[in-house]
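Appendix B. Chain record.
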Amino acid sequence: MNNLMKEVGELQNNYQKLRDERRMTKKAICDLVIPFRDKYNLTDLQALQIARNELSMSEIAELLN
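Structure tokens predicted for this chain:
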């Protein structure tokens, strides 16, 4: 579970870094989010919500378990 939360934190940090550096392109978002989505069998929307930090930790845990 700790490794999972670490991955979520890294995803969120990397997404925020794209925004801060104004490198937010469709390709950059896909390159970041798709591997996470595929690894945890999520929908595109669920993976993006996690990356954007739009879900609580309990909602994320529920999706990933």
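Further analysis of this model is presented in Appendix C.
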